Amino acid sequence: MIEIKNLTKVYKLSKKQMQERKTKNNFKKAADSVSLSANKGELYGLLGPNGAGKTTILRCVATLLQPTEGEITVCGFDTVKEPENVRKSIAFLTNEIKLDPQFSPKFMFHFFGKLHGMDDSTINKRREMLFGYFGINDFQDKKINELSTGMKQKASIAVSLVHDPEVIIFDEPTNGLDIVTARSVTDYLKKMKEEGKLVIVSTHIMSEAEKLCDRIGIIISGQKVAEGTLPELLTQTGTNDLEDAFFELYKEHNVEEA
Ligand SMILES: Nc1ncnc2c1ncn2[C@@H]1O[C@H](COP(=O)(O)OP(=O)(O)OP(=O)(O)O)[C@@H](O)[C@H]1O
Ligand SMILES: [Mg+2]
Q1: Which of 13, 24, 61, 140 suits a disulfide with 106, CB 3.0-4.6 Å?
Q2: Which segments within 24-113 are labelled E, that is strand?
Q3: Ligand 1 within 6 A of CB of 217
Q4: Residue 43 domain-assigned (yes or no)
Q5: 130 lies in a domain?
Q6: Which tens digit of pLDDT belongs to each residue from 155-210?
Q7: What percent of the chain has pLDDT over 70?
Q8: Is 30 in the pocket of ligand 1 (CB under 6 A)?
Q9: Partners of 71 in the β-ladder
Q10: Residue 123 Cα, ligand 2 centroid: separation in angstroms?
Q11: How many distinct structural domains can be found in the chain?
């Protein structure tokens, strides 16, 4: 369902960015020949430290960035040649995309439903289900800029799922959520996986990756340095828990910035 082949993404850096990063290189390789595939009914996690390249990889899959090299298909559609078909098949959630602050969750949900070509009664049924599940009804008519971080995150999640897509790509979905709300989100992701969808998430929270994901790809300095189920990763690294496994891989693969 998602097939990434040798994805490399290089960002060009401006003089200002070079100064800020204290580097002489005018580019940054954020993803370095990453290949992975994930299928329906699976919950796949990208685990990696800050700046590892998780968001870059997910943005390429979601058609928001073009790969410098490599190819990605989602449900058989090429992300560069057929981005419209890819967008119809996915829900994408990232911290960088904000809902418009002057509108309400209810308005945004309806707006995105219409963008996906849905009729009013289908949108309303989806809204009742998703707003009910995530506890959004109480603040559905408030302006986004009056909501707390967690309320905004819940609204963003519900809006991203309006069209009931086959593939769910969530970049740090529990970011800013308290444990009760975070649990409702991870439970929902499991439910969608059980319904046969493909869920791909990024996280740097070990316990979340451990509990939630069927398979984990560990991303360090733009590279996928290990992949497997939790027991497979522990065997590969000769460790007893994911945090130790991660540090083993980090010692071996982390490249300090020039
Ligand atoms: N638009 C950009 N221009 C230049 N460099 C960028 C750009 N976006 C990201 N980078 C750099 O690419 C690298 C990977 O960033 P990315 O956001 O993909 O990491 P991440 O794994 O999502 O990190 P985090 O856990 O902090 O969200 C970092 O060094 C980052 O500074
Ligand atoms: Mg990120």
Answers
A1: 140
A2: 27-38, 43-47, 69-74, 77-78, 90-93
A3: no
A4: yes
A5: no
A6: 999 999 999 999 999 999 998 888 988 998 999 999 999 999 999 999 999 999 99
A7: 98
A8: yes
A9: 5
A10: 30
A11: 1
